[in-house]
Amino acid sequence: MASSAISQLLFPLLLLPLSHAATFTVVNNCSFTIWTAAVPAGGGRQLNRGQTCAIDVNPGAIGSIWARTNCTFDGSGRGSCETGDCGGLLECQDHGTPPNTLVEFALNQFSNRDFFDISLADGFNVPVNFIPDSTSCRGTRCAADINGQCPEKLRAPGGCNHPCTVFKTDEYCCTSSCAPNEYFRFFKKNCPDAYIIYPQDGPASTMFCPGGTNYTVVFCP
């Protein structure tokens, strides 16, 4: 998994986990079935079109939620997914395999705030809208048809890869230094609020809400 905006922002801060858990209501507004995934909460559920589920996340948790597509699981919860697969498990224990659109969160952190972003650092598979239930803060959204417009070299079955996944060079992975390039600009043009992974991108893409806020994650808004 590529470096996240959440980790870049929070590592220098004093973390103050308090007692406020959060509920993430996941809505499948897609025309196809998705399988939810979350770390550290697990959250494995099949959601057909129009279905919802709730994922409860413990206070102080730092993790992510994403949608998996074209999955097949047996009765023991083992199988595979075309995008977002997490070791062949229905209940994820680790992050998914790119490409997958990530909703990242860090609950009850500095000044008892929740920090969150939509990250395309692992590529894109399903558009998403992330909506807090608090009126004191705003959400974030990545609803463009990135799969349909994906540059040819980044195309993958069911999604669009981040260039780091494909080229594995510092120019695209930003392991020491890098600058915006044509692929970064493609993602940023389509989803200006999303974290892509290049210098100075993280803080501008990270939102925050008061601790204790609940959230709705709408796939295919």
SS field, number of helical segments:
6
Helix content: 10-25%
Low-confidence stretches: 10-18
CATH architecture level-2 label: Sandwich
CATH class membership:
Mainly Beta
Q: Tell me the β content.
A: 25-35%
**Biggest sheet features:** 7 strands, antiparallel
CATH superfamily: Thaumatin
The figure for the number of domains is 1
What would you call the structural class? alpha+beta
CATH topology: Thaumatin
From the spread of the alpha carbons, the general shape counts as globular
Calculate Rg over CA atoms.
16 Å
User: What's the average pLDDT?
Assistant: 90
**Distance, first to last CA:** 25 Å
Count of extended strands: 14
Encode the helix/strand succession as letters.
Answer: HEEEEEEEEEEHEEHHHHEE
Report what the structure shows.
The protein has 221 residues and is of the alpha+beta class. It has one domain (5-219): Thaumatin (Sandwich), CATH 2.60.110. It is built from 6 helices and 14 strands. It has helices at residues 5-10, 146-149, 163-167, 170-173, 182-190, 201-205; strands at residues 22-28, 34-39, 46-47, 52-57, 62-73, 79-83, 102-106, 113-119, 128-132, 140-142, 155-156, 159-160, 207-210, 215-219. The strands form 3 sheets. Strands 2, 3, 5, 6, 7, 8 and 13 form a 7-stranded antiparallel β-sheet that branches. The chain is globular. The two termini are 25 Å apart.
In short:
The protein has about 220 residues and is an alpha+beta fold. The chain has helices at about 5-10, 145-150, 165, 170-175, 180-190, 200-205, and strands spanning about 20-30, 35-40, 45, 50-55, 60-75, 80-85, 100-105, 115-120, 130, 140, 155, 160, 205-210, 215-220. It has one domain (about 5-220): Sandwich (Thaumatin), CATH 2.60.110.10.
